[in-house]
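Record pair follows.
FIRST:
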Amino acid sequence: MNRTAWIVAALATLFVLLGSTYIVREGETAMVLKFGRVERTAGPGLHFKIPFIETARVFDRRLQVLDAEPERYLTSERKDVSVDFFAIGMIADVGQFYRATGGDESIAVSRLAPIIKDALRNEINSRTLTEIVSGDRSELITAQLEAINVGAETVGVRIVDLRIKRIDLPTDSQVIQDVYRRMRAQRQQVASRLRAEGEEAAQQIRAEADRERTVILAEAERDSASMRGEGDATAAGIYSDAYGDDPAFYAFHRSLQAYREAFADGQGVIVLDGDDPFLEYLRDDR
């Protein structure tokens, strides 16, 4: 046998050896197909198969996130909510997974999504909006996880966890309008309370200011009266001294005061005798 034949034989042998072995890594599982039918499964390690007759398919058995579009549900009060969720699952039976989906993960997701959505619908339909939004979400999920896995077994998948990312009120639903109205009513109630408290505080401030004003005016009136009294007393003393020094001037001054008071309005009429002492300083002969 010449050298070329040896090389061809060696390459053929190598090709057969490579075609008869396959490696399954940690976290993976393999399935051997014989003429398109599941022959056996294999775990991590080096394995052998019949070349050209058997085919090995390797699948990832690690946890995978199964995401889905948000779904709208009705609560027990017939209120509309939109729930966004995702599931965490893994391949539990690779043979069943292949038979159900042909090994296509997108088909598995499309088969699992209705199962999960129906399970969530059962829980949400039996709860109020307050219980769904403010309640324990893990309790809501745990109650249906077992039922979800019963349906997931038909796909060869096991769901280990289900998480709700967000619960929204659809903008086109009556619920959000009711929520907005309630929020406006609450804000108006708070605003009314704040206005009432502000008005009460303003009245207290005005009352305190009026009280202080009254006190200040009373004290000012008291001080002015005291000062006027002191001034009048001083003036009386000065007048007394002046009048004591000149009685005639005192008489003249008293007469002028009497004239001023009698004729102050310019309309007064006094009927007196011409010799009346009251007219002493009004006669021309003086």
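SECOND:
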Amino acid sequence: MRRTILFAVAVVSFVIGAYQTVLQNNETALRDNYWLFMISFVCVLLFRYLKPADEEKSTPKQKQPPGSSTKPVPRNKRRG
């Protein structure tokens, strides 16, 4: 629920900031709307920081099939 709200606030604040910057169309437009872009940036950082515990543990390590050796073959023993 928190992640959804953070994502929504990030998107909305970025869209409003971009719209206001284009609408004002002067030298100080980006500076005047900087706070909207920073709200968006902070919300995206928090969104990424608050990953669910399921996503962190869902990357299983691949097991090697039985009988396969992991030892490197010496150069003089390789077939060429």
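COMMENT: The helical segments are 2-24, 29-32, 34-49, 53-57.
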